[in-house]
């Protein structure tokens, strides 16, 4: 494609999460220990799905990797460099799209490219090609509030992908969508990841989604969250959720998750688990 896709930032980068813990200190409430020391290495080009009980600290961890939130202790390194603020090279996709309602589809997608000072002609070319990739080429001038949830999420994906970040961070990006749209967008995400070789960290509540998409699934304990299990997923793409190998893995992970969820509901969330 064009020059932005030739720059050095187009190569996938590794993420090292080193002893990251987080305690929130709300003004009028007790401190909340969200993360116990978390250690996790995500290799360049890997697609890692993070799953765990509600409230275990997944979004907190992702926000620390994004640079939106600071760790109480420990650090996050991207290709050896410490993260302490957001960077356009770590693109974030949220569940609730986070689009600018006063800009149309094209302007939303173009936003990051303007921030990167990409020349006008090049911007137009990149935006057109990514709108096409997510099937929105006929909606360039549409207002955001005229789009369905699935279309908004396509805009959000195009906006992040078109700046060619090395790392894509996703916080339940498909959680609010119907099953069909979700499955279509998962396929689009997979094909973009395979074509452009990004490093992806995806938060999800769905074991099936994790297994359809990821090379590795990381299970987080009940709060305070830390890594309970690292499961390599060696199944070939495209993955078939009905296959025996898929269903066995799904059932193993569900068992582990159910244990953690039971802990958070059974008042035993303080029970420590061996690493
Ligand atoms: N800004 C904050 N101030 C105080 N507590 C917070 C703050 N942000 C998160 N928490 C608390 O930290 C814990 C972890 O929250 P987090 O949103 O990271 O969990 P999660 O695993 O992403 O949850 P879910 O799956 O339900 O989205 C929760 O108990 C939450 O209430």
TrEMBL record:
<dbReference type="GO" id="GO:0016887">
    <property type="term" value="F:ATP hydrolysis activity"/>
</dbReference>
<keyword id="KW-0067">ATP-binding</keyword>
<feature type="domain" description="ABC transporter">
    <location>
        <begin position="15"/>
        <end position="247"/>
    </location>
</feature>
<dbReference type="InterPro" id="IPR050166">
    <property type="entry name" value="ABC_transporter_ATP-bind"/>
</dbReference>
<dbReference type="InterPro" id="IPR003439">
    <property type="entry name" value="ABC_transporter-like_ATP-bd"/>
</dbReference>
<dbReference type="InterPro" id="IPR027417">
    <property type="entry name" value="P-loop_NTPase"/>
</dbReference>
<dbReference type="InterPro" id="IPR017871">
    <property type="entry name" value="ABC_transporter-like_CS"/>
</dbReference>
<keyword id="KW-0547">Nucleotide-binding</keyword>
<dbReference type="GO" id="GO:0005524">
    <property type="term" value="F:ATP binding"/>
</dbReference>
<dbReference type="InterPro" id="IPR003593">
    <property type="entry name" value="AAA+_ATPase"/>
</dbReference>
<protein>
    <submittedName>
        <fullName>Taurine ABC transporter ATP-binding protein</fullName>
    </submittedName>
</protein>
<keyword id="KW-0813">Transport</keyword>
<comment type="similarity">
    <text>Belongs to the ABC transporter superfamily.</text>
</comment>
<dbReference type="Pfam" id="PF00005">
    <property type="entry name" value="ABC_tran"/>
</dbReference>
């Amino acid at each position: 494609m064009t020059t932005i896709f030739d720059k050095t930032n187009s190569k996938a980068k590794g993420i090292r999460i080193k002893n990251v813990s987080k305690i929130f200190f709300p003004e009028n409430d007790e401190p909340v220990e969200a993360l116990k020391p978390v250690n996790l290495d995500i290799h360049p080009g890997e697609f890692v799905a993070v799953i765990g009980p509600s409230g275990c600290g997944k979004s907190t961890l992702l926000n620390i990797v994004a640079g939106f939130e600071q760790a109480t202790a420990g650090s996050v390194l991207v290709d050896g460099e410490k993260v302490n603020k957001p960077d356009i090279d770590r693109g974030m996709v949220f569940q609730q799209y986070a689009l600018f309602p006063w800009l149309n589809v094209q302007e939303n997608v173009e936003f990051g490219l303007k921030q990167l000072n990409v020349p006008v002609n090049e911007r137009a070319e990149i935006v057109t090609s990514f709108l096409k990739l997510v099937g929105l080429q006929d909606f360039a001038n549409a207002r955001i509030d005229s789009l369905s949830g699935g279309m908004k999420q396509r805009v959000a994906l195009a906006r992040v992908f078109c700046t060619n970040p090395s790392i894509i961070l996703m916080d339940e990006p498909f959680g609010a969508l119907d099953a069909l749209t979700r499955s279509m967008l998962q396929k689009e995400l997979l094909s973009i990841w395979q074509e452009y070789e990004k490093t992806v960290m995806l938060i999800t509540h769905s074991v099936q989604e994790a297994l359809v998409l990821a090379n590795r699934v990381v299970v987080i304990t009940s709060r305070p969250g830390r890594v309970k299990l690292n499961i390599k997923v060696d199944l070939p793409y495209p993955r078939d959720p009905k296959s025996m190998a898929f269903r066995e893995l799904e059932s193993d992970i569900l068992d582990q998750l159910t244990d953690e969820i039971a802990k958070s509901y059974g008042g035993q969330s303080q029970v420590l688990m061996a690493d």
